[in-house]
Amino acid sequence: MTTFDYAPAPESRSVVKISSEYGHFINGEFVAGANHFPSINPANEEVLSQIALGSSADVDRAVKAARVAYEAVWSKMSGRERGKYLYRIARILQERAREFAVLESLDNGKPIRESRDVDVPLAAAHFFYHAGWADKLDYAGLGHAPQAHGVAGQIIPWNFPLLMLAWKIAPALATGNTVVLKPAETTSLTALLFAQVCQQADLPQGVVNIVTGDGSTGAAIVDHPGIDKIAFTGSTEVGKAIARAIAPTKKKATLELGGKAANIVFDDAPIDETVEGIVNGIFFNQGHVCCAGSRLLLQENVAEEILRKLKVQMAKIRVGDPLDKNTDLGAINSSAQLSKIRELSESGGSEGAERWSPECILPDKGFWFAPTIFTGVTQAHRIAREEIFGPVLSVLTFRTPQEAIEKANNTPYGLSAGIWSEKGSRILWASQQLKAGVVWANTFNKFDPASPFGGYKESGWGREGGRHGLTAYLKSSQLSHKEGGVNEDE
Amino acid sequence: MKFYGLVDGSDISLRNYLNTLSGVDQIGAEARAAMLATRSIKTTAKSWAIETAISMVDLTTLEGADTPEKVRALCTKAVRPNPADSTVPSVAAICVYNDMVDIARKQLDLIGGKDVAVAAVSTAFPSGRASMEVKIQDTQDAINAGATEIDMVIDRGAFLSGRYIEVFNEIVVIRELCEGKAHLKVILETGELVTYDNVRKASFLSMLAGADFIKTSTGKVTPAATPPVVLVMLEAVRDFHEMTSHRIGVKAAGGIRTTKDAIKQLVLVNETVGADWLKPSLFRIGASALLNDLLMQRMKIRDGYYPSPTYVTID
Is B70 in the active site? Predict the structure, then answer.
């Protein structure tokens, strides 16, 4: 060996036990499902398990269990007691962190470095954070003794399966709601392991119910009359369908939808950290991030230098086995998603943008897509407007700060944005102009349970996390949205 | 071309040049270094890294209590780090104070260590607080005694008060003394420069003035060769190579005590400037205790178990 080639460093999968078949988790126990579909490892197309396809009867049972648990136990329990369960769940997540990380990487395709260092610690942090709120809701600025909605129906995506579960379940439980949650069709396994954690924590039966399935199962939750509140994270298309479905009902909803974030680089940016931040912004989690920095806006006078350095950095991205501790970019979650990424990328080429990827050897089996950038992109290109949800970056340029803001805001989405500049006044100015729920300065894709997250425009309704996130799970008759700081109609 | 054609040696041109450098975001640089520290280096890669790290060590003793015997013992260790295993490579250099240079050179030559260099710390090491005459004499003494590497310190006081041209001129003078006789390593003492912006600026200043190597620290100040500091210096070296096609070396010194620390440094090199720099002519690790840990890890890989610490020599 004459060069520093990193030998394979795979995390052992012996820490996880996957059953050949799973049912639903209803009223504190696992119940068999009637029909099943396979859950596969996207890195090699191995069938990991058979997942139950939830019917409307399954959903009905789960909602009833959640209602009974709400009426009989959870709504009567003091906040302090609820908090104890949340703390317990948080600690168990930490204790079983490696198991969750390995399972998440197997089922989702994300690198173990990310599931180990980001997904699982943040999931535990969400439970810890909300555990602290459970007995302090009187002091959350929502008036005296704010009331829970009742039963929350929660539908989560496949990009951060456990983390999105935590974002949904932790605030719901802390505020006194009970839950029927449906994980995404392709990534149910960590939710089912979480069901075991609920048992381990002696969580009262029916407080958390997990029904697996596909879009029809999700629709059954949305349409069920026993649901008081819908919390959905996923595509804008499905979000709109949910909004239509619940419009004639009394159901409340929070929707966390798509994005096409602008990552704006001014000419006084710290170059090396900016390049690293661009890479993290779009290639983190294979670009399967609703707030990904998928539109890079470069000030023209530094565009060449940034692009040159970006390409050098992209060539160092280690693509491959998600369980290898040195992998930076894992597998695309599903063949359907891979087709979508391919289709949009091809449109980029045919519409005249210039495509570039570093040389990288992709595995034969599984779903893979090399990190890709498009230069010469204009606002009219599909790849500048539509969410690709993959490791594909569209690069545009601008000449003045005003132009950058105009281009950044010229999208139906408004979930996140990034600013790179060493000048504090410019950062403050730009962050006020950007129509985005989250604005990062000199960093990207940073999450914290104390910080509210959510979108403007077609990126969604409401906020998750922080004090603002509590308002989504509490009756707010005595509270105007403005006071709650939630800017829902922007 | 003098000063690579980038500055003309005047105060104003140096200032203008340093002002063109982009800033370093502290949080971003530290996050990058922390991410690279998670690289898992196993089996064949670990063996290669240990072997390479040994060959990059500047085995150092810089104590008031140094004696000829102590230095001779260190020389023996430098040439043959593990007396029981001749396959272990020699280290790159011995690093000592001026008065030990002659002793070290003679001992190394005597025991077949002609390829092991002798580095002398210079210019009123470690503080750099002396007149230019003294600094010149200090360096001249070391070269006369046979040092082929000069580890000079910069005047941090001058740098921090913005007198960049003074720092620059000192390096230029010492560089001229070394010309054709010794490699020049310029010690920035990053623990006293504190900010990464300063580290980047001092790195460029030193490279422009003629450094063959830029070195983090004297080892007398903490923090020393932290991963983010080394990262920022490697980025400077990489950018300088892009502009001038000249390869400047980096020496990480101070606080690197374990094999794990050393491997983290090699990962930084590999993923910042690339494999070209993974050789003793372009990357060095200044250390003393580190060598024994590298040797123990090497034995562990060979034998499958950790040896008793009595199997490595204490000098």
Answer: no
Tens of pLDDT, residues A84-96: 999 999 999 999 9
**ipTM of this predicted structure:** 0.94
The SS3 of residue B182 is coil
DSSP 8-state symbol, B9: S
B135 an active-site residue? no
Are A81 and A208 in the same domain?
yes
d(CA B186, CA B150): 8
Residues of A with catalytic annotation?
A: 256, 290
Give per-residue pLDDT as tens, A285-324.
999 999 999 999 999 999 999 999 999 999 999 999 999 9
**B123-160 pLDDT per residue, tens:** 999 999 999 999 999 999 999 999 999 999 999 999 99
CATH number of the domain residue A282 falls in: 3.40.309.10
Query: Which domains, and CATH codes, for chain B?
Result: 26-303 (3.20.20.70)
Q: Select the more confidently predicted residue: A490 or B22.
A: B22
Read off the pLDDT of each residue in A253-262 and give the average, rounded to a whole number.
96
CB contact under 8 A, A270 and B22: yes
* CA B170 – CA B156 distance, rounded (Å): 12
Q: Which residues of A touch B43 (CB under 8 A)?
A: 7
Which chain A residues contact residue B31 at CB under 8 A? 276, 443
When pLDDT is cut at 50, 70 and 90, the band that residue A1 belongs to is low
- Cα distance between residue B185 and residue B215, in whole Å: 6
Residue A3: pLDDT band by 50, 70, 90 thresholds?
Answer: confident
Is A151 contained in some domain?
Answer: yes
- The band of A488, judged by pLDDT with boundaries at 50, 70 and 90, is very low
Sign of CA dihedral A283, A284, A289, A294: negative
Q: How many domains does chain A have?
A: 2
- Record: contact B275-A4, CB cut-off 8 A: yes
Q: In a mutagenesis test of the A interface, which of B25, B36, B42, B199 is the best target, namely the one with the most A β-carbons within 10 Å?
A: B25
Contact yes or no for B284/B251 (Cβ under 8 A):
yes
Report CB contact under 8 Å: B28, A1: no
Q: Tell me which residue of A406, A455, A412, A454 sits closest to A434, measured CA to CA.
A: A406
Q: Which residue of A has its CA nearest to B231?
A: A272
Instruction: Give contacts of B28 with chain A, Cβ < 8 Å.
Output: 270, 272-274, 276-277, 442-443
Sign of CA dihedral A207, A212, A213, A215: positive
Residues A132, A196: one domain?
A: yes
CA distance A325 to chain B (A): 6
A138 lies in some domain: yes
Return the number of other C-beta atoms located less than 10 Å from residue B169's C-beta: 17
Structure tokens at B266: 């090699």
Give pLDDT tens digits for A328-337: 999 999 999 9
CB pairs under 8 A between A and B: 77
- Strand, coil or helix: what is B282? coil
In the predicted structure, residue A349 carries a pLDDT above the cut 70: yes
- pLDDT band of residue A478 (cuts 50, 70, 90) is low
Side-chain half-sphere of B52: how many Cα atoms within 13 Å? Answer: 27
Domain identity same for A384 and A281: yes
Domain with A399 in it: 262-441
